[in-house]
Amino acid sequence: MVRAEPPVTSRPTARQLRLVRRGGQGPGRLVMRYLVVAYVGVLVLVPVLLVGWHTFEHGLSPVWHALTDPDVEHAFEITGIASAISVVLNLVFGVGVSLLLVRSRFFGRRLLSLLIDLPLSVSPVVAGLALILVYGSNGWFGTTLEGWGFQVIYALPGIVLATMFVSLPLVVREVVPVLEEVGIEQEQAATTLGATGRQTFLRITLPSIKWAVAYGVVLALARALGEFGAVKVVTAGGVAGSTQTVTSLVEQRYGNFDQLTAYAASFVLAAIAVLCLVVITIIRPKERR
Amino acid sequence: MVVVTPTAPAVGSRRRHDRESGGLRRGSAVGLGLSLIWLSLIVLIPLAAVAVKSSDNGWSGFWTTLSSPEVAAALRLTIGEALVVTVVNVVMGTLIAWVLVRDDFPGKTIFELVIDVPFALPTIVAGLVLLSMYGPQSPVGLHLANTRVGIFVALLFVTVPFVVRSVEPVLIELDRDAEEAAASLGAGRLTVFRRIVLPNLLPAIAAGAALSFARAVSEYGSLVLLSGNLPFKTQVASVKILSLIESDNPGGAAAVATVLLVVAIVTLIAIDLLQRWAARRA
Predict the structure, then answer these.
(1) Based on the domain organization, do A164 and A33 belong to the same domain?
(2) Which of A135, A270, B86, B205 shows the smallest number of beta carbons within 10 Å?
């Protein structure tokens, strides 16, 4: 690594400033760059590309054939519906709670913020177990709900609950910092000019957070589509063609030696995930503004 | 950044002058009530049920489950692997963040995207990805299925972004004046890093490490295919919980789950404290 030679001067030479500004030059910098690129490349990129290769190993038509299997199509349907519902609900909750956390003062605000973050560190299997214990047939609410004819576990509502659980914090975490940055001056100005609360919210607050909301929604969507552990517990792997999500399908098909379908479905999920990432990358500078 | 560092920054620690509105208006009170009900129904009550269920057989039942050889082995393996992975992530994550912020090269945007892939990828797909690379049909002859090394690599895969995304924003905001001053006084680059840059990065590194640890401990989907679920050898806690559920032992599952839950809560509190520490230094 290049060491800045220590001539003891009081002013940095142009060379020394360049060194510090660009984090150094020469072999040290290149070594770090190559090391880092190699690490991420080998650890992440190569295996992901390998899956793409495996998927299309035997051409396009077997993949298409696998993806148009009715069970597979139904799995995508279920996953899509459940994710859409959970994202919309989390969006409403997320924006509402963000406004509360930032614009109001109340006892336990910090605790609430912490509790909202819980799903981020909880294992998905634990989340699934938690939901079963409450909404399952012998669960705290489950017995009552089943009395009303409403089945949650081993059904779509359970899948929605599971995906909502894991993606709950995502919108909040993106919107809160932006709300804090934006401040309340514009809202106050609107109020002094006679705007009602609703008008202020719709025409001042919402537009100021729209990119953060979009960012959070895309994150929540990616998370909901890809959720596996919690959904598996809540649906016990799911019944093919009925309550099986795409992620459960991938595991089941792989276990049944139907590798092609497993890879095909995985490829679609991966492509969607990458797409979400691309969208986020585009949104990011707008969010930072 | 894609990875969500919880409470970035901690609520209430930044920009006090602009916020406010003091007290809870009636509308906000209703909103708060509704939010609390929602949060409770989805998250809090279910998690409480786990803790309650684990006490189904009383304290002794709880400890019996946890100290049973298989469970104890699974917990030891899970926490041990998570710690090692976190250490590696601290080093590599900081390095990656450094290169991302202070270096520039063609393809850097794609590189940034690749780093975020493990976070956005469904865990079962990650499992398949790892299996195709390190499983029986491995093109590089690395057969890590059913081994602890396989678990290590899998956890490394899914936790790549956490330290990087935690450190990156801090590194971007860092004022270079102190570094330049040190260089002008003759400090070598390593010294500048060690004594000027690193202390400022420590809270962010620690927060990223905590996130990485929490994720590694709770990981399931990417391990379910690769680890092989061999008791005492490659069975991690999350897999053990599932097998306890499937063998109709919800009390036992809840006991192990409570341990993981405690780890999750402690991690969150640690991150919150770290972010307050960081905010105070800023």
Answers:
(1) no
(2) B205
CATH number of B57-281: 1.10.3720.10
> How far A203 CA sits from the closest chain B CA (Å)?
18
DSSP A27: H
Q: Where are the domains of chain B?
A: 24-54, 57-281
Q: Give the residue from B107, B204, B184, B179 showing the smallest Cα distance to A22.
A: B179
**Separation of alpha carbons A121 and B3, rounded Å:** 13
Measured at the alpha carbon of residue A283, what is the angle toward residues A280 and A289, in degrees to the nearest 5? 140
Q: Which residue among A51, A96, A185 places its CB closest to the CB of B129? A: A51
Average of per-residue pLDDT across B180-187: 85
The span from the CA of A16 to the CA of A21, in Å, is: 9
Contact B153 A43 (CB under 8 A): yes
Q: Rounded to 5, what percent of chain A is helix, strand, coil?
A: 75, 0, 25
Closest-CA residue of chain A to B249: A129
Q: Is the model's pTM score more than 0.90? A: no
In whole angstroms, give the CA distance from residue A231 to residue A127: 9
> What is the number of structural domains in chain A?
2
Q: Which residue of B has its CA nearest to A14?
A: B184
Do residues A117 and A184 both lie within one domain? yes
Q: Which residues of A58-74 are buried (b: 16+ CB within 10 A; e: fewer)?
A: eeeeebeebbebeebeb
Question: Cα separation of A276 and A272, whole Å?
Answer: 6
User: Within this chain, do residues A224 and A95 fall inside the same structural domain, yes or no?
Assistant: yes
Read off the pLDDT of residues B123-181 as tens digits, 9 standing for 90 and up. 999 999 999 889 888 888 888 888 899 999 999 999 999 999 999 988 888 888 888 88
Same domain, A91 and A152: yes
Query: Quick one: pLDDT band at residue A17, thresholds 50, 70, 90?
Result: low
Same domain? A41 vs A116: no
| DSSP alpha helix (H) spans, chain B | 26-39, 45-54, 58-67, 69-102, 108-120, 123-134, 148-158, 160-173, 177-184, 189-192, 198-218, 221-226, 237-246, 250-281
Both A134 and A98 in one domain: the answer is yes
- Asked if the structure places residue A218 within a domain, the reply is yes
C-beta atoms of A123 and B21 within 8 A: no
Domain residues for the domain of A29 are 15-54
Q: Report the residue of chain B nearest A164, measured CA to CA.
A: B42
